[in-house]
Amino acid sequence: IYDLASKCNVLLAKDFVHNTFTVILNEEANNSRSLYVEMNQTVISIYPRLKIAKMYNFSFMDENCQVLDQSLEKNSTNSRREANTIEVSNQEGVSVSCDFQFDLCTVTLAGWHHGISAGLFGTNDNEAGNEWTLPNRSLTDDMQEFTQSWQVNKCSLVQKKVKPCPITAKQNICKVFFEEPQSLLR
Prior knowledge:
Elements: E1 9-15, E2 21-27, E3 33-39, E4 42-47, E5 52-57, E6 66-67, E7 77-81, E8 85-90, E9 94-99, E10 104-109, E11 117-118, H1 143-149, E12 151-152, H2 169-178
Antiparallel strand pairs: 1-2, 1-11, 1-12, 2-3, 3-4, 4-5, 5-6, 7-8, 8-9, 9-10
Protein name: APLP protein
């Protein structure tokens, strides 16, 4: 269990050999967190506190923004939405699942990702001695050094820029009611 006091985004797991997936924990401006999941030229942003997810497809010239109630056709990324859960997976055996009711997300990797991924979730090679591997492949036993080494975006590495989907009038009203600090319904 890690207590991340940092306000920086951190890389949880990434396939560093075939680049089939990336999972980043983002710190949002409203003091909440979101998951950035990239698979097969598709980015899924999951906001557990808001109980929503949005999909961006980079394989098209224009980004295709949509709320993730349906998966994009002609895409090897599968998504499934039920009442309190969302699951996103690809054909390479990567699955990210979030249970909105319990604010719990899991990342599951198939066996062929053994030893080719790294991040705050470790090296995925069943070796306890190298779980705290830094991006430069050296080892540390210092928790702060380990967590800081996997920071991305504003802190060190640059993540792909994702244009936000246009906010509809209904979403704007919801934001005013439920996200603004002065709202009694927040």
